[in-house]
Write a structure and sequence with these properties.
Porin; Oxysterol-bd_CS; about 30% strand; single chain; alpha+beta
């Protein structure tokens, strides 16, 4: 496959480089000289022509909060801020990163369809569409809470899926997840690298996402595009993911290459995704097109990438209707992730739903949420001191570290493997005659492996 052919996705690194440079020429104006913050840009995602000063005031920050935050953050420009900065609770949503990992499961029926497909290229089309479907949720401009080391998230009662995720490392922050139903197995080791640019941040997904379709045992491997969060401090915060997504069938060599268009002049190209399903000989078989915040469609094509005569564009997926004017831009499924309705019997005490800062923020108490967030972070530091003073190392419960280190476009990743113990744990509980808990929400959040008398 010629990676420079615009019909066939474009070069991966050149696409990213061009996308990022285009942000400078997109409808943006320097705030410098207008409100006194050198080097910051405000970009209108709709491509409007409002004055930069007016646009800069449309964010969710009060001016005094914005000014104070900028004084704190300006020293980090150019740095990776993944875990080195304590952020104000004002910018958070009432969900942890472990829960956000589970949002990919909303349209899991697409993987069921992929597993049932006889056609290997339609199988890839459905699986790729499933990975695209989560981008509607990823456009939310609120930050999820960083999980505490040892924190977990469990989900049941959706599509026959059992989902478990765990925070397996704190420095660097690494999460691992496993989901399974009768059609597929999904495994992920997730780590991110960031670059803070002042009024924006680039996010590079140093992770490994793999799906095994059970009927034929094929293994699919994903390389997603990077993400850019714009107008963090000044203006309306918005998210874009310019670059290439590549999904490879490791069993057959077939692959999908999709190009996520960057937002251009007057919002042109925003949300648009185009590309092809290719066979192992790198010949296009299916054209894919759509918008990641609306729908995806497909059509069989010839070796030149042109639609086959007598075929038509068919819709594979459309985003579900979302609540209007939701405070955190949540979908109905996102609300379910916070609900105990999706929790299993005898929920683990380390589950994200039980975090006191998360529940306080959900109820609208920012002051209490900030207090609880600080308390949890200090408890985490104290537990680390206690653990290290005993000469012990943290050991994840549901995932095991491996000797495998896999390369990604943005850095190497240490792989964690699901160890099967959660399946045994859940089977033992589900087969017991114990009485189902009626007030699981009263449980105290407890991800700690080592008890400490009090925070130091």
């Amino acid at each position: 496959m010629d990676s420079t052919d615009p019909k066939k996705g474009g070069g991966f690194f050149s696409s990213i480089a061009a996308s990022i440079s285009n942000f400078g020429s997109a409808m943006s104006k320097s705030v410098n000289g207008l409100i006194g913050y050198e080097g910051l840009e405000v970009v209108n995602p709709e491509g409007g022509t409002e004055d930069a000063e007016d646009e800069a005031r449309k964010g969710r920050w009060k001016q005094e909060d914005r000014d104070s935050y900028w004084k704190i953050m300006q020293k980090y420009v150019g740095s990776d801020v993944t875990s080195m900065v304590t952020l104000p609770v004002l910018i958070f949503e009432p969900m942890s990163m472990l829960q956000k990992m589970a949002e990919l499961m909303e349209y899991s029926y697409l993987l069921d369809l992929a597993d049932e497909c006889e056609d290997p290229y339609m199988r890839l089309m459905y699986a790729t569409t499933w990975f695209i479907s989560v981008y509607y949720a990823l456009q939310r401009t609120w930050k999820p809470f960083n999980p505490i080391l040892g924190e977990t998230y469990e989900m049941v009662n959706h599509g026959g899926i059992t989902f478990i995720s765990e925070q397996v490392s704190h420095h660097p922050p690494i999460s691992a997840g496993h989901a399974e139903n009768e059609h597929f197995i999904y495994d992920i080791t997730s780590k991110v690298k960031t670059k803070f640019l002042g009024n924006s941040v680039d996010i590079y997904p140093i992770g490994r996402s793999r799906v095994t379709l059970k009927r034929d045992g094929v293994v699919l491997d994903l390389v997603p595009p990077p993400t850019k969060v714009n107008n963090l401090i000044f203006g309306r915060t918005w998210v874009d993911s310019p670059g290439e997504m590549v999904l490879t069938n490791l069993t057959t060599g077939d692959k999908v290459v999709l190009y996520f268009q960057p937002c251009g002049w007057f919002g042109a190209g925003r949300y648009e995704v185009d590309g092809y399903v290719y066979d192992a000989a790198e010949e296009p078989k299916i054209l894919m097109t759509g918008k990641w915040n609306e729908s995806m469609s497909y059509q069989p094509c010839d070796s030149e990438g042109e639609p086959l005569p007598g075929t038509e564009l068919k819709e594979a997926w459309r985003v579900a209707k979302a609540p209007e004017n939701d405070r955190f831009q949540y979908t109905h499924f996102a609300h379910k992730l916070n609900s105990f309705d999706t929790a299993p019997n005898k929920l683990l005490e380390s589950d994200s739903r039980l975090r006191p800062d998360r529940s306080a923020l959900e109820s609208g108490d920012l002051s209490q949420a900030g207090f609880e967030k600080s308390r949890l972070e200090e408890r985490q530091r104290a537990e680390k001191r206690s653990r290290e003073s005993k000469g012990h190392q943290f050991t994840p419960k549901w995932f095991d570290p491996t000797s495998e280190v896999t390369p990604t476009p943005w850095g190497d990743l240490e792989i964690y493997c699901y160890n099967g113990k959660y399946t045994e744990h859940r089977a033992a509980i589900d087969s017991s005659d114990g009485v189902k808990e009626t007030d699981v929400s009263s449980k105290e959040f407890n991800p700690w492996q080592y008890e400490i008398s009090s925070p130091e």
